[in-house]
Amino acid sequence: MKARSVRGCIINLGSISGMRGCSYEDLPYQSSKAAIIALTKTAAAKLVLDGIRVNCVSPSMTRTVPASIGALMLICMYPCFDPGRDHVPRL
User: Fold this and answer.
1) Domain residue limits at 21
2) Which of 77, 84, 80, 78 is nearest to 63 (CA)?
3) 42-80, pLDDT tens digit by residue?
4) pTM, entire model
5) 65 shares a domain with 23
6) Can you name the residues that pair with 54 across neighbouring β-strands?
7) Would residue 76 count as lying in a domain?
């Protein structure tokens, strides 16, 4: 399948929502992120012999001004929301 022996890495962007579902309203988002995670696992198993690594980064919520304003609402709406796992952007 490969024309030349080149090693590589594929990085997919998932979400913690794809690992633990929270609300029915976010079902399309959560299922698409779960599909990305499953795709990553399948591609990693298939491409490892070709020297291609496949990883998925699944961040939690990023603390921004709009997110901080709505944090209490998120805790009430989404019981799985863990405010201790949010990330503060570094400038």
Assistant:
1) 7-59
2) 84
3) 999 999 988 999 999 987 766 666 655 555 555 555 555
4) 0.64
5) no
6) 10
7) yes
